[in-house]
Amino acid sequence: MSLNKLFPACISSFCLTFILLPAQGQLNLSNMALLYVLLVVVIGSHYGRLAAVLNAILNAVLYAHVFVPPLFSLAITEVQHLLSALIMLVVAILVGHLTASLKVQAEQIQVREIQARTLYDLAKHLTGTKTPFEVEKVADQFLGLTLGILKIKIVSCHETKANFPVSLEALESIKKTQKPVIQIDKRIALLPLTSDYFLLCELSNNFDLHNSSPELLETVASVIRVALDRIYFAEIARETEIRRSAESLRNSILSALSHDLRTPLTVVLGLTESLALGKASPERQKAMLTSLHNQALSINRLVTNLLDMARLRSGQIELNEEWQPIDEVIGATLRQIRSQWRNSEITLDIPPDLPPLRFDAVLIERVLWNLLENAIKYSMCDLPIELIVRRTGDNLDVMICDSGPGLPAEGIEELFGVFQRGQTESNIPGVGLGLAIARTIAEAHGGQVTAENRTGGGACFRLRLPLGNPPMLSELEDDV
Amino acid sequence: METQTILVVEDDQQIRDLLKVTLEGEGYQVVEAATAAQAAVEVRSCNPNLLILDLGLPDRNGINFIRDYRLWSLIPILILSARTQESSKVAALDSGADDYLTKPFGVSELVARVRALLRRMPAQPGQQASVIEFGDFRIDCIKRLVTRGGELLRLTDIQYRLLILLASNPGRVMTHKQLLLQIWGGKAVESHQYLRVYVGHLRQKIEANPAQPRHIITETGVGYRFQL
């Protein structure tokens, strides 16, 4: 390798001498010397220090031999000429040396820049990772070639000791000192990440201790450590959030049970005891039975809502989404509503030719049921409830409007959140539960449920669902 | 007319008692079974006209029970399911159950379903009525004609097949899968959207108010039920 560099150094020296030979005696000696020095600069910048020094010495000898009088002799007679030859030698060596150092530095800077960019890329891509496995993959992908690392693995010290490439003593010392261990002969580097985890790098043959210093490997390790820490703490935060919301759900269920369930149960107990006494008149008994039935229904509604909410909140609900017309599920819901509230009047305003939507029919039926039930319970007027379907932009709105007292101007949003906050006892049974369920289901569909007061009195609840792009149906029969 | 026997397979004593009291009040004879094993014995000894089956039996999956039972008997099966058994309900209907009730159910609804199922005893081939009538409508299955108040109603092939299939099973829940299988054959079982489009078209033609149908009732998440 060094011969490859030294050979051009010699050849170029002789070439230059040969080229300058015709100018012998005509060109000023000092110019000649400068040309030789220039050659040293070129050689130094291309072939490094050793070549530059060799070239300088050779140049000085050739210069002295060929051009300095007496010509073609090394015997320099004049002191002045000897001095200029010596100065040329010194200058050439010095310049060659400086040029070569500059070259080395430039190369190092280039390597560092590549390393820095690689580290930056690594850090950037690590921010998107979600699991330690992903971290390992990203690190492997980004570090591999540039840093002369063949393979990167995150290993635990609990892994099979047999697979561990370093001795147990070495492992203990890494744990204690938290300093990396690089074994060039085995082509591995082991860097501590946490107390239990290590970064194991398989080094390639051209891994250069000089370029990729231990500090660099430590930087890599610390970037990866930060990513792992972030993942770890994100996971902890997520778990805490789940625990917190489970806790608040449990509190809400308890408070709902304690109030909303106790009321109808008290009535049921009282009524059954009175009936058992058998003192009431037959008409009175009939009324009591009706009341008993209604209380049982209200308990059923509450339990259904609690079960729904618990299922929705636990994340067990899998949407069974299909493209279907909204009017079909509206019709089915109205049928059920009418079987329970025979007297309430509901007027429909559904435009024809609505596009199909993608939703889970069973769940959307729950939403509509809850909204209609609310409207019936709170409207308290003989005026009909209106169900209006409208297309607005990329959404379809189903509005359920009553002519009741309307909603309190402040805290409309809180209607939906009663359940989450686990509000203490309220005197309206089950309020918020149904709305919270409706909103949760709508949000799972990428939609929403909102409430507003109508101009002219009454409340309006709006279920908004995205329209999406229904698939085209081919092979439909032509309708005649 | 001889007394009809109903076999109630339900592991909960209280619900069994409720069913027994109610159905005996309606004049049916009720035989009880608490487990699938017991039911298998009773089915042979009492030869019931109707089976009421709870899906959550302790000793056996209700769906497997229905599948085995359907291999040799055609008597109607009414299933009782809890609200959390949405998918197993559909699976049970697909396996051959005829109708379902979700707990808690009203007694009047129970009696209505039982009556409807018993009225529609297993159809013998050739005994199917060739004319079906509902509302102002009259379907002549032999001539393939549908008339409303004497006036001819024009239906496409698929609409006609859908209407016949639904109307010849009045009161019975037909799951999406069953309808698709019988109208389009095996390959179309997954494309529920087609079925919904055709049901929509058919409703436009036979319902006075398609948004609130009287005849083709939607059973959300399950299928359709035809009411005469």
TrEMBL record, chain A:
Major location (coarse): membrane
Sorted keywords for this record are: ATP-binding, Kinase, Membrane, Nucleotide-binding, Phosphoprotein, Transferase, Transmembrane, Transmembrane helix, Two-component regulatory system
- GO CC terms: plasma membrane
Tagged with keyword Ribonucleoprotein: no
Tell me the SMART domains matching this sequence: HATPase_c, HisKA
CDD domains to which the protein is assigned, alphabetical: HATPase (cd00075), HisKA (cd00082)
In this chain the Histidine kinase domain maps to 256-469
Q: Provide the E.C. number(s) assigned to this enzyme.
A: 2.7.13.3
Query: What's its top-level EC category?
Result: transferase
Membrane topology field:
Multi-pass membrane protein
Q: Which Pfam families match?
A: DUF4118, HATPase_c, HisKA
Protein name, per record? histidine kinase
This chain's source organism reads Azomonas agilis
TrEMBL record, chain B:
Asked if Transmembrane is a keyword of the record, the answer is no
The family database entries (CDD domains) matched by this protein are listed as: trans_reg_C (cd00383)
Taxonomy, top ranks, is: Bacteria, Pseudomonadati, Pseudomonadota, Gammaproteobacteria, Pseudomonadales
List UniProt keywords, sorted A-Z: DNA-binding, Phosphoprotein
Q: Which GO terms describe its biological process?
A: regulation of DNA-templated transcription
Annotated DNA-binding residue span(s): 129-228
Q: What are the residue boundaries of the Response regulatory domain, all occurrences included? A: 5-118
Q: Is Transcription regulation one of the keywords UniProt gives this record?
A: no
Name of the protein this chain belongs to: Two-component system KDP operon response regulator KdpE
* MF terms in GO: phosphorelay response regulator activity; transcription cis-regulatory region binding
